[in-house]
Amino acid sequence: MGNDIYAALREGFTDPIRDVLWGHIYLTPQLAALTKSAPFMRLFRIFQLGPAYGTYPGATHTRAAHSIGVYHLARRLLLNLAERGADRWLSFTGGRSFLCAALLHDLGHFPYAHSLKELPLASHEELTGKIILSEPVKSLVADAGGDPYFTAAVVDVALPAHKNQELVFYRKLLSGALDPDKLDYLNRDARYCGVPYGAQDVDFIFSRLHPQPERGFDIDSRGIPSVESILFSKYLMYRSVYWHRSVRSATAMIKKALLAGLNAGAIAREELYNLDDQGLFTLMAGRPVPLFSLAEKVRDGYLYGSAAEFPFDESIHRSLLDIERRYYHEQALAREFSELIGRPVPPEELIIDLPEPISFETGLYVRDEGHYFSESSSVFKTQGGDGFIKTLRIIRIFVAPGYENDIKSAGGLFDILHKKKKWLQL
Known about the structure:
Structural class: mainly alpha
Shape: globular
Number of strands: 9
Radius of gyration: 23 Å
Strand content: 5-15%
Helix content: 40-55%
């Protein structure tokens, strides 16, 4: 079986793509055909960072470019692990399936970054699996030497693995602390945003990895600083880019509009699948839902401002985790703000934004120290990750321009938000 994986990773890679980040990336003609399929071409019409270009004008790179970068790093990673002993349990079909999974992992991703993430929709991994198992992608994966079900199951872990250990191994490679997805998006997003936070030394990282059938790979203690760098870069990118105040405002406005449309029955869940960025705005522009005007405002750069910000405390703000219940809290808070400033604050012009859960756990095993990363000699312990999360998960109260300054300057705002807290009582 050993030589098969080298054939899967080395033979027939004759078609180059020039990438800003990684230089020349080579594909087989059959893998290149996947990038010309209609489902993949949609990714060229989705900005990787959604509305971030409003703050970082260079952030107009696409999910297609990112996906090609993930494929490139997946091939490098797998070749590195094969040369270190993983070739004993890897096959040609499995290797090609993994390359296809890396290239296609975002096929089902929603438009406009993560604006749709909290909505009651199927996961983008599930949607990706269905696209891979449908034509034309199914046949193209087979032509590229992969198995369509195996490829889909690497991405969508809800699909049964049927005790296939090679499949389990590839799942660990594609999703983890040092996965090709994260290594590409941290480097790529930092490059296009013009910030220094995300750059990672991929060559050194790969040199510290050792294959392990059940865990994917382990690291040695010399790789600990690289993991620390990734964790801190992730924190800085979330704080400065991904969850920038303006990005949160834009995504919260889109989310509020779409939730209203779904609840009113003006749009069906299925209509939100397989859209690109422009398609999302076109969909909302053609429906008679008052809150869909928020999408036009976002498109035109008319963003709601932040009237208040404070850390999320689950013991106090647990009910805000439910996006449906947040609607009632927004109505209650709008009434209190109206009394505070002496004029009406319409509920549709107020949004409570809470970022989704985030983790800084790695699951990595440090082989020469004999324990997991959280127990290693790293400065990053579980408590440290919790501190990052508390800093990042900020509740923001966004309001339409015209209300922001009045609310901020009015006496009694602190009491409303933190002492009386009537707006949190349903």
